[in-house]
Amino acid sequence: MKIAVLSGKGGTGKTLVSVNLAAVALDSVYIDCDVEEPNGHLFFQPKDLQKERVTVKLPQADPELCTGCRTCVNFCKFNALAYIKNKLIVFNEVCHSCGGCLLFCPQKAISEKEREIGLIQSGISGNVRVVSGMMNIGEVSGVPIIKKLLQDSRKENKNVFLDCPPGSACMVMESIKDADYCILVAEPTVFGVHNLEMVYELVRIFQKPFGVVLNKCLEEENPAEDFCLQNQITILEKIPFDLELGTMHSNGQIAVRKHPKYKELFLNLLKTVSKEARHETASDT
Amino acid sequence: MKIAIPVDNNSMDSSVCISFGRAPYLLIYDTETEGSNFLDNSAAASQGGAGIKAAQNIVDSGAEAIITPRCGENAAEVLKAAEIKLYKNTNNSIRDNIESFKEGKLSLLDDIHPGFHQHGGK
Ligand code: SF4
Ligand code: SF4
Q1: What are the residues whose beta carbons fall under 8 Å from the beta carbon of A208, sequence distance 6 or more?
Q2: CATH fold label, B2-110
């Protein structure tokens, strides 16, 4: 089962939920897709680290062979190429590495070179295999790294928890594409509702089964909860606002490994999610 | 000498467009013949890299200078490679800017922004 954890913005508790779920599951894989700011590994402190470079292919033109016909410039839908003063200019960050220009160049003047955009690090932390995508500073898109992360995760038959990037843009869409179930994490404020709405729209577009975890709940009114009730969204769990939990989390500790109370809470959540996800698959058929 | 201006409409009474890459039209004005030619900016509708394509169109038009309120990094790189100078417009009127340009009153554009990338998920 592949479970994606998402939220409309950072700091909502997405990492708290995904890290603790992965830690409480018997045998699991935690994948940090928040490639701009991966921090799951800070909690797990995985051992036996393995690193793998992630590269993309970039075209380069041989000036000896290029006749300046501009077939490639006109072909590139992303406008990553310009032909100026007898020279082909390639805009690395704009290029999507589709390879089209290479195919269409009548002179066979274009070849590809590799460019590193980040790396994937994996290691073991107790019962969890921890995989993190890390994008190099200055890169514009982490999508190729997320693609690679998910490609590798397809081989897994364990429970996989995807800690998605915040927001609802391309990188998040990429992350939830193959998820069996999505957990949306929301804060009990008016802003929290706004952020929740963003990811709610997204999972509906992708037609993913989903439920909400309300984080930092107090006794008072909870606009995020009201939103769920109004829209008949399943509330999977309400995590109370708790200084102890907050402190553990900000010290990089995994609550379920420290405290039986949280172990129980997240075990319950895992049970609920498994039931919901199974129910969804059953009603599909 | 030919100069290029991103504009909102294909008429000399139009105004300078606030966007460079996404301007609907590119005016190519010849300061010697006083002739004007409006190019459809084929880049305006593109998903990304609009500035690069618009810059390529301007280079291809033979313009040697551009009057624009702003310009993205990538487009600026294309224009620099082509040795096209960028000037900042003073107001919205096309004619006023052309006059100011002829009198050498426009200053060079130094505000090059990093561009609005649609991908990247930011
Ligand atoms: S590989 Fe694709 S995206 Fe990159 S420059 Fe060539 S055609 Fe454009
Ligand atoms: S298609 Fe090939 S020959 Fe034509 S401009 Fe591009 S690189 Fe040069």
Answers
A1: A4, A176, A179, A181, A182
A2: Nucleotidyltransferase; domain 5 (3.30.420)
pLDDT confidence band for A250 (50 / 70 / 90): confident
Q: Rounded to whole angstroms, what are the CA distances from A106 to A147, A189, A277, B115?
A: 31, 59, 51, 32
Q: Is A285 helix (H, G, I), strand (E, B) or coil?
A: coil
User: What is the average per-residue pLDDT within A163-168?
Assistant: 85
Q: Which two tokens stand for residue B10?
A: 């294909």
Chain B residues in contact with A82 by the CB 8 A cut-off are 52-53, 55-56, 59, 78, 81
One fold for A1-52+116-282 and A62-107: no
- Cα separation, A81 vs A105, whole angstroms: 13
The answer, yes or no, to whether residue B18 has pLDDT greater than 60, is yes
Q: How far from chain centre, in Å, is Cα A210?
A: 16
CB atoms within 10 A of CB B38: 18
| Sequence-ordered strand ranges (E) for chain B | 2-7, 25-30, 36-40, 65-68, 71-72, 85-88, 112-113
Instruction: Tell the CATH topology of A1-52+116-282.
Output: Rossmann fold (3.40.50)
The two tokens of residue A175 are 């992350």
Average pLDDT over residues B66-88: 94
Q: How far is the CA of B37 from the centre of ligand 1 (A)?
A: 31
Task: Select from B46, B48, B56 the Cβ nearest to the Cβ of A82.
Answer: B56
pLDDT band at A73 (very low <50, low <70, confident <90, very high): very high
The domain segmentation of chain B, as residue ranges, is 2-110
Among protein residues, the one whose CA lies closest to atom 2 of ligand 1: A98
Q: With beta carbons less than 8 A apart as the criterion, state whether A54 and A117 touch.
A: yes
The domain over range A62-107 is classified in CATH as 3.90.480.20: no
Nearest CA in chain B to A139: B120
**CA trace torsion A86, A91, A96, A99 (10° rounding):** 20
Amino acid at A228: C
Contact of A74 with chain B, judged by CB distance below 8 Å, is answered with no
Domain boundaries, chain A: 1-52+116-282, 62-107
Task: Give the C-alpha separation, B66 to B76, whole Å.
Answer: 11
